[in-house]
Amino acid sequence: MAEDTAIKYPVFDRQLKRDNSWITIMIIVIIILVIALAINIYAIFRPQSQLASASCSPGLCAVNFATGDKRCPSTATGVVQFNQGFEDCTSANYCQSSKAPCAVLQDGSLNCNGVCGANNTQCRCAAKPAS
Question: Given CA atoms 60, 66, 69, 72 in this order, what sign does their dihedral have?
């Protein structure tokens, strides 16, 4: 009879639910990483837009904003293609770009009037120093 009088507590008989929220979080993180990877791959391998490419006038050079280096045509009437995102057109003896208006002289100083100086053809161009 002792079995019949035993008190049962239903609270202790319940099975607790397992917490699987970490699986949802991992799936969200993986989806975000895949999207970020796809964006990076597209940015690296996308075809160059025709809007970003242009031609300098005959005889002008393309100047790179980051390095200041110029790419000039092989002839005086030759044309150079340039990318408008990081290059501009200028002459070989001057720095006429609004983003890189200073000519780097042979002694390393800057001429922010844009004149390369004598015997300094195709000088590098640089941005104006911060004031």
Answer: negative
Q: Helix, strand, coil proportions of the chain in percent (round to 5)?
A: 20, 20, 60
Q: The pTM is what?
A: 0.57
- 63 backbone dihedrals φ, ψ, rounded to 5°: -115, 135
Per-domain residue ranges of the chain: 10-45
**How far is it, in rounded angstroms, from Cα 29 to Cα 27?**
5
Each residue's pLDDT, cut to its tens digit, for the chain (131 residues) gives 455 566 666 666 666 677 778 899 999 999 999 999 999 888 777 765 545 678 899 999 999 988 999 999 988 889 999 988 889 999 988 999 888 999 999 888 899 999 988 887 778 999 888 76
Nearest to 116 by CA among 91, 99, 82, 88: 91
C-beta atoms surrounding 44 within 10 Å: 7
